[in-house]
Amino acid sequence: MINNIQELRERLFTSGIVKNEQELQGCTSEEIAYIESKYGVLPRTYREILSLLGHSAGKLVSRSEFEFYFDQIIDHNEWHRESLLEAIAEGDECTTLPDNAFCICARNGDPWFIIADGQDDCSVYFLHDDCITIKEASKSVMDWIEGFVEEAEYWIRRGMR
Prior knowledge:
The protein is α+β, with helices and mostly antiparallel strands. It is built from five helices and seven strands; from the N terminus they run αβααββαββββα. It has a single domain, classed as SMI1/KNR4-like (3-Layer(aba) Sandwich), CATH 3.40.1580.
């Protein structure tokens, strides 16, 4: 179990997900402040994750499969909010996300999001492609990121990443 950012960093290296320091690039404090100025104060654990790997983390995720890194999630947050508003305007039944919801990742356009209200840690939620169903995906941001670590380790062991 990954309990803190130091354990996450260590596991990224020991598992072979990240081979060297150049593969691990975090966000700057200015980039994190930009997100917080638009969506609210991020949970401490997610700020730490962004600081560690917000731009790249070796073989953790495929950019072509997930919108996970800073540049991708900034674009996805804007696109997703606009898409939901358009769908609602066209009469589709959709769940709107709170103003302080921040999509931290997406796969095939379906977002995982947190509530940016300055907590120490928080649950991660998933909005299904029906645009209505929201489910808790993880009890904490650390549990959520650990799922990605375990998935990457699985594929690395099989020589697929």
